[in-house]
Amino acid sequence: MDDRLATGIEGFDGLVQGGFPARTVNLVAGPAGSGKSLFGLHFCYNGARQFGEPAMYIVLEETKASLQRVMRTFGMAYEDLERSERCLMIDLGELRVAGPEGSAIGFQELQDFLASSLRAAHVRRLVIDSLSAVGLHYATPGEFRGRLFGFSRFLRAQDVTTLLIAESPDAHSLTAHGVEQFIADSFVHLGLEEVKGELRRTLTVRKMRFTKHDTTKHPMYITPSGLAVAADEKVV
Ligand SMILES: Nc1ncnc2c1ncn2[C@@H]1O[C@H](COP(=O)(O)OP(=O)(O)O)[C@@H](O)[C@H]1O
Ligand SMILES: [Mg+2]
Question: Which atom of ligand 1 is found nearest the CA of 130?
């Protein structure tokens, strides 16, 4: 088990031989409201709390306050973990606002920050929420792709397991730039579908290197304690 990082998300780890393979770069994508941030929060919080693995959550899209509110809603006591420095939430969106006007954070700024802070904080679990926010920095998809490639190489050279969060623009395209899934070691897709006037949540593991993984589209629920995947059920 030491080469897998469990998320602690009910029903998920069993689909992927116990968790994400250590030191990989993983993509979690889906439309707005599909539960991507919640997935990342579980990964950090459970890792820090259950396994004592220091986690860092990079906020680029929402505010830190709103994510902490989400954590509280689902019974994750963030403050204790932050005090013990085992779960750090860093708002780089704020940093951008303080910097030159209109300059969205790019991969280079992100890498410079991580190069100095990951090791200092002994971070084992990293979440970047989201890639879509970094995409605003680049004028063309080609440039974004090239920089993302370099960035994921940097991440693989660290002693860290990363979740890159990305928004899919609509039901037909999985991610905005269409290339992220080739660069990542795994791709977990969160779906949000309207069925007979009701929203249905789903989770599909579309790819995971080094892993004999499940490929079924499963129902996913948001319960009072957060995400829960119905591992024995299939969406047809
Ligand atoms: N207390 C709650 N009970 C049930 N569902 C909730 C609750 N709070 C938020 N949600 C749902 O969770 C979704 C938030 O998921 P989030 O992880 O922020 O999505 P994403 O990051 O993919 O946009 C909201 O859109 C909402 O539908
Ligand atoms: Mg989000």
Answer: 21
